[in-house]
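User: Structure please.
Assistant: Input sequence and predicted structure:
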Amino acid sequence: MTKRLLFLALPIAASLALAGCSAGSSDQTPDTSGSPSAEKSQEGTDGQTAGKNLSAQQVEDVASKLLDGDPAVQVIGNKQMQPQLSAAKDAKLPDGIKPEKCAELNAKYTVTDLTGSVAATSTSSSEQMGKVVQIFSLTDETTRKNVHEALALDDLAGCETVTIEQGGKEINAQRQILPLDVNADRSLTMSTIMDAGGGQKLSSVAVQALDGNNFVLVTLQTGSMQPAELATQAVELTDQAFDEIKAVQ
């Protein structure tokens, strides 16, 4: 199982909830510290959220600590994240989701605009597992509200099994919402088992949690573990993220 295969598949795990940015992107983006979007997110917006926000350095520090010691760790800070968030804002939702009603459900519970945030991503990849941890300090009340509403998804409404077109190929996915406790105001945990072809099954778990102005997205994927095992690790990482956030505030 290659690193690229792992990371290409990761975003599908969260496709029926929040798809704000490419959780699986391992490409470095050029430094754009002087870009308007980066400056706007670091300073806040007209609809700024109430409460204390994390700085770009604090968000990056939290993301860095969570996968410290893992193999092939890569950390992408806010300056590099902002162009990716801007691109994701206008990105099209996945085409070819079947049944059709599942495409409609996907659109209803998808947030593509996370530009109103200070963000950082930490990734780790090995032959056994791919990990993506994203930390967002939301600086815009509308963004926070949209995330809060998206996390209200509690029923897949007959969309537990779907077919998704990716790269000209059809991928079958079986999904389940897991009723797990996360130390946050609102959270959504979803497991996905995908048929990657050639007899290979990929299991992934995405935990998405919002606490105050802070949004955490943790995605783990492997071809050798069951969703229940992944979920335990993903929830632990999410809770650790909020502990680190509280420690730096």
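Strands lie at 74-76, 117-125, 129-138, 161-166, 169-177, 186-197, 200-211, 214-222.
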